[in-house]
Specification:
This protein is mostly helical and 271 residues long. It is 77% helix and 0% strand.
Length: 271
């Protein structure tokens, strides 16, 4: 069995990493306590991601393309990885904000999702096809940002409103982890009084029960937060679809059709 003494020392001992020196609190913020509860599993996930990044760079370095193209591909991948790290830092900042602004929420999705999952693959594909991505930089970034927003909204939505049997995992993890996701932020902005107290009591509580999650879900539905998120997802998916439609007739019809319909199909599956 692995030795977790170092992890315990960092996250559980000495006044919880003596966070009161940084925050003025005698006890860690509840978000920090939630992070502590998932530190080991999250650490393994981060290490797996680091390994994947290193291997992906090796694949690009070994690819049978010209040196300038290879150099450009590695540049795309390292830029995407850097953006993802910035996104992870911004993610932490977001979770220490009472109700994050829409701008901050979009920044997290842009750095954590859009750059790495959407923009970089598009740029790499163009490089592999002999094109210069810089020629299309503005429109590619616009499309990636819109897709990143609705994809993050979709994941946040499913975390509270999804079907556990369909997803293969339980709901409410963002709530238990104290994440100010799109869903939780919309909920906090829409409630007050007793309902807000219920949500805040559950937020960051790693032992939050399925019954409490169901109560928070019901509050979110009754206050209109669920409907707002569904409408926002649809709106950003339609904007992304319209952006891709504008790529005609410059690129092949089947490629444009794929990127045009993908956003609407993705949201439709979630709703």
């Amino acid at each position: 069995m692995p030795d977790h003494q170092h992890t315990k020392g960092l996250f559980g001992g000495g006044d919880g990493l003596r966070f009161h020196r940084l925050t003025g609190r005698r006890r860690p913020h509840r978000r920090i306590e939630a992070v502590q509860a998932h530190a080991t599993g999250s650490g393994l996930a981060v290490l797996a991601g680091d390994l994947a990044l290193v291997l992906s760079l090796q694949v690009l370095l070994d690819s049978p393309v010209s040196l300038p193209v290879r150099h450009a591909m590695v540049g795309v991948q390292t830029a995407a990885a850097s953006a993802m790290i910035v996104g992870q830092i911004t993610d932490i900042e977001r979770d220490f904000t009472d109700i994050p602004s829409e701008e901050l929420l979009h920044a997290v999705s842009d750095y954590k999702t859009a750059h790495y999952s959407i923009l970089a693959p598009l740029q790499l594909g163009l490089l592999a096809a002999g094109e210069e991505p810089a020629r299309f930089d503005t429109e590619l970034r616009r499309y990636a940002r819109l897709v990143g927003i609705y994809e993050t909204m979709r994941d946040d939505y499913l975390d509270l409103f999804g079907n556990p049997q369909t997803m293969g995992k339980s709901t409410g993890r963002d709530l238990r982890d104290g994440k100010r996701s799109y869903t939780i932020s919309a909920l906090l902005a829409a409630v007050s009084g007793t309902e807000r107290a219920v949500v805040e009591a559950a937020l960051g509580d790693s032992s939050c029960t399925p019954k409490t999650v169901a109560t928070v879900r019901e509050i979110a539905t009754n206050c209109g937060a669920e409907q707002k998120l569904r409408a926002d997802m649809q709106r950003y998916a339609e904007l992304a679809s319209a952006e891709a439609a504008g790529w005609r007739p410059r690129w092949r019809e089947e490629a444009v059709t794929l990127f045009e319909h993908l956003p609407l199909w993705s949201v439709e599956r979630a709703l």
